[in-house]
Every structure is written in structure tokens, then in C-alpha cells.
Amino acid sequence: MSYPLSPRWRRRLPVPTVLAAATVVLLLVSPASATTPQAAAPAEADPIAGQQASVVEVLLDGTAELDALVATGVDLDHGVERTENGVVARAVITPSEADRLTAAGFTLGNVLYRPEDARARVAEREATIAEHRSENREFAAATAGKTASDVSDVKIIRADYYTSGTSQILSVEAKWAQGQTATNTLTVERDSGPGTAIGSGGTQTISRFVDAGVYLYHRGAATVTSRPEYVRITSPTGDVAVAKVSEWLPTPGTNPEGPGYEKDFVTSYLTPTELYSRIHQLAAEFPDLAEVVELPYKTNGYRRHAQAVLGTANASRVAVDSLAWGHEGGNDISVELVDPGAGNAALGVTVTGKQVRVNLGTNGSGAVTSTAAQVVAALNSGAGTLLRAYTYRGSAGDGVVAPAPRTQLTDDLSAPASVSRDPHPVYAIRIGKHRDGSKTGVLAYAQEHAREWVPPLVSVETAERLLRNYAHDGRTKQLLNNLDIWIAPSINPDGGHYSFYDFNSQRKNMTNHCPLTGAADFLGRDSWGVDNNRNYTEYSLFDGYSGASSSCTSGTYAGPSELSEPENRNLDWLASRPNIKFSMNLHSSGNYFMWSPGAYALPDRTSAPRPSLADESFFWGASSRILTAIKQHRNMAVTPARTGPISDVLYSAAGNSGDMLWYKYGIYAWNFEVGTSFQPDWEEAHAETMEFANGLVELMRVARDFESDKKRPTSTLTVAPSSTAGMVNVTFDVSEPAAVFYTLDGAKPTYESTLYGSAGIREGGETLTVPAGTQVNWFSVDAAGNVEKNYRPDGKGNNYRKGRAVLPTS
Ligand SMILES: [Zn+2]
């Protein structure tokens, strides 16, 4: 194997590095990103719960229905969006208001903002404001009054030039020491290309990026008319920073797809049944190159018990569930609550076939006196072989029931009979000339979230491109001859079917973990299920991390325990295959491209460990290749601001799959957030499929290059003046993404030595300030495990790099 150090090497990082990483400042999640669809959750369907308001989508057929909604007097937020299917309004409503809207015939969509979000943010705020302010004070104190070039009070973090559509854009991020207290914008001066004067390309201003009262850095993007080579910022105190502009996602001059390369194989959205059928057809057509693997765990099935809730007031409601599954006879059961129309009647139940009749008890004047609790007891004793009854959501059931006409129990599932109601197998297609585990493995998986319909198409389009181009495209042949590719187009088929046929906004699987005293009844059916992307084992809710819920009706319900769900155990099984080194978790939407860490713990936002500088560099380097391939389709640029660790660019997501793959299995695990919405119109869905399939194929090329990487990294030591007498500043540069381990005490460097770290979030390598004359010993090692100069870092080798921290003579 060509990567002897991975993943064990990562796990062997010295503990102090991990602890230091945990205290690194995190970018706070802004309210705007907290309302992206990933954060959205179905309504907490428990009307007994608190009465604080949430922001909830109301899905309307058109403007007439919108007018009717307005006429109810409901509190509407400013968001009213016209969609292909009508109008989506956003209402700020309590749970009981939500119930009233539903009863009035309105269809509610996602909850965009919940009271807990606000409370959590307030709690976060207290902790983080103090932490970040003290860091800013230290930075300001350390740089006050100093004039050496290493302590300019302004530092340019990134300067990225890119094109998007027909526009040319320059994006700049810079940190200014006074940014916490002073509100100034910063002016960026541009040149107009190589050899031109700074300022000749015009200027742009960048503004403070402040989150929860804490200054993080200045940032901003502006359109430009030519590509600048250098930019300069002069801070309000007169300090200066200059940086070279790098090109973000340059459009490649040559198409990586050779002549005759075939693509564009999907022509419509595909249900999970159709996705599985597609990969079976492909494997049958290319038996030498592919096979379908049934994963070890079947789902719990697209099936439910038949149910009804009789009555309207909570204390007098009676909830009824069939014992049989709906499709296995439960749907044939009916219940009626009959007023006998006579005085002093006894409560009783009669069963005729599957018709259950409850004769309600009355008093001497003929008024019904049976309470919900009494009717529940009578049903369970008189019809307990067909059904179970219970009071509504933990109510004592002391309200007198109202007579109810015959009501058919139903599982309310609308998919055609061709969709199996049994526990469902989950399939992956395995592609490669040698499918024996001897080749580097790549895993792509989609539809953990049921309503995300484009990502599965990206996965099957990619599979088909690989197979149909093998015979005549040399680069594709290289991929299939040298990689072991696993593509699982739908991890959550039950939820996927439910999303297609019953409830478009379904995010989770279909398993009802709600207790009978909770939302297990018929009215809770659209809120059940486990968020499969919160049920994994690393940095989970159960470990105390943020961004998942213990509520069975939450959109981010983490389940009763880690890996409680068959969908999740299947992915764990896939990831545990020892040859898998790369993975892509395909989601939508937002055009994000992300990696670990994906979670932090409140209240102090303790992050899961950040990747080493070398791994971070590798993530960025490979990402730029993948995003460039995506951009090639229609010049859609995933922006620098949407690229990076999940918890930096989006929000904490405790127990997500990417973190499990990275931290538990050492897999380079990325996450796509494809496109702009869950179920865009087909023209857009098709374009997104084509562009992200470009990116997924490029991931295969990254894996192939990694697998064949035998090139050793080289490194250089740079020594610069320090503003502190007797000290010098030391930095390392490497020829490719590589880790540097170093000692400052003359000892041989090993993997236990200090790992050279990053200067801060989204910044490059740190500056070490050491006494002039210090002996520096080090070596570098790349992501594929190639060590500089073939040094053996096990304590026996001697040809490590050696240098003295002395200033070069000029
Ligand atoms: Zn998702």
C-alpha cells in the first residue's frame, strides 16, 4: 500500500495538538446561515408543548390562498416566495396556531427558526463574546506600538480572484488588530495586472465581519475589470499589508474529458426504487466492471400502522392504532363512537369483522358520560386483538368524548403498490476492474435526507459516466483499473419514497420513535423519523455536541442512540472497509463544499479537532480541483466563503456522517451541498446534476493521483526578523500539502514531535518566534505518506532536515 501512515498517522497526532486545536476560534454561524434548509425542521408536532413562536413555511396554491392566509391575521414574516408550485409564505406562529392553520386547511412546510435557536444563540453569545474579546485584546496589546514588519496591525488572510457567470470578482479577507473596537471599513487598493502600479486597478472597501458582537475579520467581494496581481491595505493607523492575489477555481484550458466522452444520462428525478433499478441495469450491462452489493441492514420499511384520532379537544381525544401494518389489514379496520340515545346505557364495545363499534355510556337523562380514558380502556379490552387505543399525547383523558361517525383507520401511504411495503434492501453499486479490496477505495453516497432529490441523480450519473466511457476513454480506464468505487444512490429509501409520494419535505427516515404519551398518534406522522445525518458515532448529541435534537419530532432528531438506525449501520459498514480513503456525502442545497470538523460543543464552542495544517492544505488543494471541474459545466463558482470546515461555513451538526468517516476511519471525507433548493425545476436539477457529476468524477481523479503519488515533499525553513530583541521568526514552506514535524532542542524529529500548525482559521502556517541561533530539526510528510528525503522518523534515521534560526546575511 502506498499510504502506510494513513489513517493511523492521523490518530497518532500528539494530544497537545488536539487540545490546542480545540481552542481555535471558530467562525460563528450567522442567523442567515441558520435559516438555510439544512437547519430547517418540521414542526414539533406536540400542541401541549410551549407556546413560543417558530418561523414556519406555509405552502400555498396561489395568491388567492395567500390572501386567505393573510385574512386569518397570522403573523407573516417578509419572506414570500413564488415557486413553481405556488407560493411559500413564512409565518411566525406558535404550535397551537400551527394546529389552527392546519385545521383551516393550510399546509405547513419547514420550520425555519425555532425558539431553541434563539435561546442557544444567547447562551453561545455570552461565552464566545468573552473569549473572542480577550483574544482581540491580546492581539491588540501584542502589536501596539511596534513597527517591525512582522507586526503590522493588518494582515491579509485571503485574496481570491474568480469568475462567476460573466463577472470577474475579487474577494478579500483581512484581519485588523483594532477591529473589535473600531468600526472602520478597510480600503483595498488593486493593481491592474503584473507590473502595474498598486492603485491602478482601482479600490474596493471591505467591512467588518462581526458575529454575536465579536469581530472575526474584514471581508468583502467586488467586481473588477481585470485580474489584479497584488493588493494593498493601509490600516487607519498607517500600517500596511500587501498580498499576492490567487486565482480561485481558474477555468482550465483543457477539458479533462477526452474526445467522445459520454455523459448526460439522467432525464428525470428518480425515486429510490428507480435508482436501485438503474444501478442493477448498469451492473447487468457491465458485469466485468461492476456489481450491485446489498448492504447488510434492511430499513424498517415504507409502512405504518393504520391510525385515527377521534375527537377534537385534547382531553376527550381517543387515539387508535391497528396492530397489523396498514397494508396487512390495518387499513380495513374502522371505529365509531355511538350515542345510544337512551338513559343509563353502559359503555360497551362490539366487534363485527373489522368494524369496531363503541356504545357510549349515558346518565339518567341520556347525556353521554364516557370519558376518553374510559373509552380507551373499553377499546383495549373489547377490541384488543385488532388495535390499541390511548389517550391523546399523555392526557389523563378525563374529558367526555363526543360521538363520532364510523372512521376508517389508515396508514395514509400513497405510493403505488409497486413500492414495496416491506423492510427495504439498500443497494450500492461497486465499480472497478479489481473489486477485491486491493485498490484505493472511494465512497459516494446520497439521500441521507429524503427530500434532497438531486444528489442521488449526481451519484447515478457519475456511475454511468464511469462505466460507459471505460472502453474508449483512457483516463476513465485508468480510474476503473486502479480504484474500488462504491456508489450508494439512496441511503434512506423509505424516507425517499415518502418524500416522493406523501410528504415532499420529508427529511428523515420513517421510523416512529415517539412514545404513546408523545406524538406517536396519527397527527404526528409527518414529524417522525431519525435524521440519518445526526445518528453517527463521532462528536454526536450523545457525546454532548451541538446541532442535533433528542426530540422524536425534531428535524434533527438524533435517534435513541448512536447507530440506532439500519440506514446508519449500512454506512458504517461501507466506511469500515479498510481500503476506503476518500468519500463524498451528497446533500442539497446551498452550493457548499465542506469537510471536518462538523460539530462543536456548547457553551464554549469546543470544536471537534481541526485537521492538521497538512490535511487542511490537502482538503483545500483537492477541493479546488473538484470545484474547478464543477465550474466547467456552466461557470457556477462555489465561493471561497462556502468552502471549508462544516462548522466554519455552515453550523454544528453533531453526529454527522462526514465526521464519522474522518475521525473514526481516517477517510478524507467531503460533503457537497448541491444546488439551490431541494427539488428545483427539472432544467435546473439537470444542470446541477451535470456540474456536480463533473466534481464527483474529479474526486475519483484526486483519489487516483493520491494512489499513484510516489513523489516526496520538500520543505524550506525561512528566518525573518522579530520585533523582540534576541528572537527571530521561523516559518516552514512545503512543496505540496504536507505535515512538518519539528524539534527545537536538537533532538531527532519523529511523529511524536511537535506538528507545525496553522496560524488561525483560514490562515496559512504559524510563525514560530524562537531565540536567535536555535537548532531546528524537522521533516515533512505528504498525505500519501511519502517522507522528505526518505527519512525514517522511527528514531533510527538520520537524514532529517537541520537548520539554525539565524537571519540570512544580506
Ligand atoms: Zn441534507
Q: What does this entry look like structurally?
A:
Mean pLDDT is 86; it is low at 1-50, 121-129 and 145-149. The protein is elongated. The protein starts with 7 loop residues before the first helix and ends in a 6-residue tail after the last strand. The chain is 24% helix and 26% strand. It has 16 helices and 36 strands. It has 810 residues and is α+β, with helices and mostly antiparallel strands. The structure holds zinc ion. Residues 38, 449, 452, 533, 587 line the site of zinc ion (ZN).
Topology (SSEs and partners):
Blueprint: H1 8-11, H2 15-22, H3 31-34, E1 54-60, H4 63-71, E2 76-83, E3 86-93, H5 95-103, E4 107-113, H6 115-143, E5 154-164, E6 167-176, E7 186-190, E8 203-211, E9 214-223, E10 230-234, E11 240-244, E12 246-247, H7 272-285, E13 290-294, E14 305-310, E15 318-325, E16 334-338, E17 348-352, E18 355-359, H8 372-382, E19 387-391, E20 404-408, E21 427-431, E22 440-446, H9 454-469, H10 474-482, E23 483-488, H11 493-501, H12 566-575, E24 580-587, E25 592-595, E26 600-601, E27 606-607, H13 613-634, E28 643-645, H14 646-649, H15 657-665, E29 668-673, H16 682-707, E30 715-721, E31 727-734, E32 738-743, E33 754-755, E34 768-771, E35 775-782, E36 801-804
Parallel strand pairs: 5-12, 16-18, 22-23, 22-24, 24-29, 25-28
Antiparallel strand pairs: 1-3, 1-4, 2-3, 5-6, 6-9, 7-8, 7-10, 8-9, 10-11, 13-21, 14-15, 15-19, 16-20, 17-18, 21-23, 25-29, 26-27, 30-31, 31-34, 32-33, 32-35, 35-36
Helix pairs in contact: 7-9, 9-16, 12-15, 13-16
